[in-house]
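On clarity, I found the account of how folds are encoded harder to follow than it need be. What matters is that the chain and its backbone geometry are given together, residue for residue. I therefore recommend that a typical entry be quoted early in the introduction. An entry of this sort, consisting of the sequence and the corresponding backbone structure tokens, reads as follows:
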Amino acid sequence: MGARSYNRPVPESGNKRRRQSVGAAWLLLAGLVAMLAGGGATMGLSYYRRVSGQASPTVVKGVIVTGFRTSVKTISEPLGSGLTNWRADWSICWDRTPNAIGYDLQVLTAEGISPRLRRLTTTCLEVEVAAGEHPPDRIERELGIQMSLQRSQLSYRMRAALPNDQVGEWSRDVSAGEDLNSAPR
């Protein structure tokens, strides 16, 4: 059997394949980051569309998503080891916008603004914002730490998607884990 040469020059078509592989790797990495940030499969019916490279929809002034409400639901299960497996799901809901056919969500992270939009057909979004396995007396502390990290690193903003390729203005940014029902501190 002959020796293989791994140092062969890459044909020009290989560069295109390499760019596609790098693009696929970045997409996979972005998906993993979104899952770690709480995106996962909990976001319901939605689809993604790339913002860059597309004609911008017409923005209708004065149409802004409002009426934000948030809640946190914690689920826990005792384990045989004395630890408790737990997770916290944060949800944000908003008032229905007249004539809206959906709502575009954009993710804002500490690294920047996502170039992809998520179109929801509902007026609520739910994401996992904290999870772990801890002794029962440490869960509240760990939840507070993880929620604080989420609030500093992950936010969402929304806009109404209207008929005829029109959209409303972007809402204010809402941090993941933010409690909109309590008085400001």
